[in-house]
Prior knowledge:
The structure is a homodimer.
Chain A: H1 7-16, H2 23-34, H3 41-49, H4 57-69, E1 74-77, E2 83-86, E3 93-97, E4 103-106, E5 122-133, H5 135-147
Parallel strand pairs in A: 3-5
Antiparallel strand pairs in A: 1-2, 3-4
Helix pairs in contact in A: 1-2, 2-4, 3-4
Bound molecules: manganese (II) ion (MN) (2 copies) and zinc ion (2 copies).
Chain A binds a DNA duplex through α4.
Amino acid sequence: MQPAITTGETGDRLRAKGIKPSVIRIKVLQYLLENRVHPAVDTIYRALLKEIPTLSKTSIYNTLKALNSKGMIMEIMTPGGEIRYDGYPARHAHFMCLKCGAIKDVSLSCATCLTHGTEGLKVTEEAVYLKGYCKKCSEKLKISNRKS
Amino acid sequence: MQPAITTGETGDRLRAKGIKPSVIRIKVLQYLLENRVHPAVDTIYRALLKEIPTLSKTSIYNTLKALNSKGMIMEIMTPGGEIRYDGYPARHAHFMCLKCGAIKDVSLSCATCLTHGTEGLKVTEEAVYLKGYCKKCSEKLKISNRKS
DNA sequence: TACAATTTTGTAATCAATACAATTTACAAC
DNA sequence: GTTGTAAATTGTATTGATTACAAAATTGTA
Ligand SMILES: [Mn+2]
Ligand SMILES: [Mn+2]
Ligand SMILES: [Zn+2]
Ligand SMILES: [Zn+2]
């Protein structure tokens, strides 16, 4: 399977947002665009380490912070406190499996979920999270419940 | 101002959920019911330390975990990864100020915000978060922007 | 009182994230 | 191509909330 986006295009996207397209920055953004699993920093790091043996984890942190500050990616908070990243910052919700940690996209029906309580507040971001058990994990739990 | 709920009533609530009402457990739950600021563990700890000088922070962690597992309280994820606690687990959204960290209740208009993407998932919890700047902090930011 | 179960405490360990100085790289000027 | 400066990258030390776990204290009961 071919990548949906070329390295050159990724570089252009970065330039358009005022970020100089270094090799690491291109690879990180491209990884997020091609691997829609909402990876953690360490996941991205270990994947890119294969291609860039001198890579430092700090560079991943720096890059993700830059991309996020320009709105090119999205941060996802998790119950464990670890941050996960999403290369598609369009408005949508996230489901997280409490057993295996998988994060799945869920679409939102309402334009806004909120009524009163926001008077005087400057809201810059909205996030909707679901927690529970993914298909695989809930089936495993059923089986282990049957046994006990 | 009198507490909205007596120690005895708080004990009854705990017993009703199968939690033995020790002094610490009563105080922690009561603190959350009377101080609706969505405090962090350390905030609760420092407050109760005045009344219980031998108190250990581990006891706060233990108690909050027990209360949460029985659905008596609610955990709130924050961008910094720190967990904040809410004694009122009824369905509502939370706004967090990125400058001062204040967390404010916001009511939800929709019964559910979600459409497709949840097929096969066992959803146990839904959470809606807003981020931005509270009234005080956004006013301060305006003033400092004027100067620069 | 004696005993077991539960609760509480205190300390060490974990781990993602940050701070920051050192090193390397990119790139323009000469 | 050499030099110089800014930017990018690296590596290490530190932070800070949370967890793990064993010791100590408390509770309830026989
Ligand atoms: Mn997503
Ligand atoms: Mn609340
Ligand atoms: Zn799962
Ligand atoms: Zn504020």
